[in-house]
């Protein structure tokens, strides 16, 4: 496994498609509070985010297949998703460690209804400093705001 920052010019449709599949499978495995329609509705925003996020880190297998990604804007981790087949293998830890050490992230948001993700970030030294009852699109999915 290796981690690589993907420049805008290398974010082709094939890569974006593979990353959206990772996102969908990850969300289906971890965001049990979302309906299939919610996931379908959010997907176009994910595609835009993958194309526009200033820093896109992608984890690849040794065979150059993507297995996870993280998106960073300023000092905030905006997204971190792994293929469910890659859960519990230290890949998420490597990605968050890289984001903290190399990109100086200080903030991350997590869905309150995703306790495993919250536990993951708390183990990395983040603390909750604020709660929002709605997500950024005013959907009824409470968000916990964490800082390092």
Task: Provide the low-confidence segments as ranges.
Answer: none
Shape: globular
- The computed structural class is alpha+beta
Largest sheet: 7 strands, mixed
What is the CATH level 1 assignment? Alpha Beta
Side by side, the strands of the main sheet go 1-2-3-4-5-7-6
Over the alpha carbons, how many angstroms does the gyration radius reach? 14 Å
What string gives the helices and strands in order?
EHHEEEHEHEE
The CATH architecture term is 3-Layer(aba) Sandwich
Question: For the terminal residues, how far apart are their CA atoms?
Answer: 26 Å
Q: How many β strands by DSSP? A: 7
Keywords: Acyltransferase, Transferase
InterPro entries: Acyl_CoA_acyltransferase, GNAT_dom
Pfam families: Acetyltransf_7 (PF13508)
Protein name: N-acetyltransferase domain-containing protein
Secondary-structure blueprint of this entry?
Blueprint (H helix, E strand, L loop, with lengths): L1 E4 L7 H18 L5 H17 L2 E6 L5 E8 L2 E7 L8 H13 L3 E5 L3 H9 L3 E6 L10 E5 L1
Parallel strand pairs: 4-5
Antiparallel strand pairs: 1-2, 2-3, 3-4, 5-7, 6-7
Report on this model:
The protein is globular. The chain has one domain: 3-Layer(aba) Sandwich (Aminopeptidase), CATH 3.40.630. It is α+β, with helices and mostly antiparallel strands and 148 residues long. Helix content is 39%, strand content 28%. The chain has a 7-stranded mixed sheet with strand order 1-2-3-4-5-7-6, with helices on both faces. It has helices spanning 13-30, 36-52, 91-103, 115-123, and strands spanning 2-5, 55-60, 66-73, 76-82, 107-111, 127-132, 143-147. It contains 4 helices and 7 strands, in the order βααβββαβαββ. Pfam families: Acetyltransf_7. It comes from Megamonas funiformis YIT 11815.
């Amino acid at each position: 496994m290796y981690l690589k920052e993907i420049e805008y010019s290398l974010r082709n449709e094939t890569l974006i498609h593979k990353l959206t599949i990772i996102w969908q499978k990850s969300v289906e495995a971890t965001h049990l509070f979302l309906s299939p329609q919610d996931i379908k509705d959010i997907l176009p925003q994910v595609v835009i985010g993958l194309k526009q996020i200033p820093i896109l880190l992608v984890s690849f297998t040794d065979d150059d297949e993507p297995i996870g990604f993280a998106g960073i804007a300023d000092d905030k981790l905006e997204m971190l998703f792994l293929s469910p087949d890659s859960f519990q293998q230290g890949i998420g830890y490597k990605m968050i460690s890289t984001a903290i050490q190399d990109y100086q992230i200080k903030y991350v948001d997590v869905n309150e209804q995703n306790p495993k993700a919250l536990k993951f970030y708390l183990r990395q030294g983040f603390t909750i400093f604020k709660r929002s009852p709605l997500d950024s699109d005013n959907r009824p999915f409470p968000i916990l705001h964490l800082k390092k």
